[in-house]
Design a protein that fits this description.
mainly alpha; globular; 312 residues
Amino acid sequence: MAVGVDIFFVISGFIMVHVSKDHAEGRKTPGNFIWLRLKRIYPPYIVATLVLMGLVIAWSHSIPDDFNVWRIVLSVALIQSFNPNGLVQPILGTGWTLSYEMYFYLAFAAALAIGKRSYLAVLVVMITGGWLVSSAIYSYSALGVFFSNPIVFEFLFGCAIGYLYAVNKIPRVSSFIAALAVLFICVVSHLNRSELISDNWRFLYLGIPAAVIVTSALSWRVSGRVSNFFSFLGDASYSIYLIHIVVIYQVMSRVYPKLISFGFVTSIDQAVAITFIVATIGGILFHLVVERQFNEWRKRTKKRAAERLVGA
């Protein structure tokens, strides 16, 4: 469901506020904030991009025009560019949300540097001002399309939730209200697919319900094996997000004709269920083999550096 992106942006804003206390109070620098974020997102993203490119080349026995040096450089750097379908996306399609993440990181770090403890007010002015200016001088360039997308306000929704949570003023939202928000999302998503409501208002009709769901989730309490399971899924969520599109379009799209011919898949519902399971498993494997290994390598490197510093 596309609303996953809206929830992702709200959570992103919340997390940035939640983890930035030391930066806001001057114990860590804005540069450190950026560096921590880059180390988190870039290595798995680059590997996932290479996996996609490798599969495309292997299946087609040729190098697509989209895999030119300029597009590869822009994609790896998460700089906005058009794909062959005219969409502002890097080679790994899901990377478009990471381009916004990079924008949020840079804006957040700049707000920390300028505003210190008042960084949230500065951030609101920066994000809102950027959207107003880009909308006023709207162009059909990749940058114009990128900055004029009002989906950026969902990030500010998450920041607001993070602030209220930090000062213990977060409103309690019941699970019933969250369920109503999910129902509302289902209805408006259908209307959006039917082109009855504009994407320009997505930050309201999907962003606000997403904020309601995230706020409600903050009061949920689980323990034991269930807690461990969801904690593991949370750790693997980034890898699942990165790799699911590769699994769907580069693997399952080639497997389904065989499954159908052998009678293993006889309905759309079966196909959706199988795709969901396989994509999730693929993402978990990517997390274990790639993302977790990078994280552990970073920890070992940091530990060795600290030991050398103490030894000196």
